[in-house]
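ok trying this again, last paste got cut off
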Amino acid sequence: MEYASSTVTLFPGNVINSSGSGRTAAGSDNTRSGDRLLKLGEVIKESIDGTGALRLATKTRPQRTGLTGAGLPPVDSYRPGR
């Protein structure tokens, strides 16, 4: 929150996404020992003093195929002839 609000003006209802790509250790402060990648069932907790906390457990999802790098279907699948 501190960093996000230092670079942009935040308003009530704004959503800040602090997640990373699957199994990433990006942004890690080296406080984890051994393998720093997320593991199945590991709990991630985000909190803001005076506001509350959000707890999420990691999970897997079926591998999707035929998608672009952004995880979207190719444009020609919904815009035929282009």
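PB: full thing came through this time. The first helix runs from residue 2 to 7.
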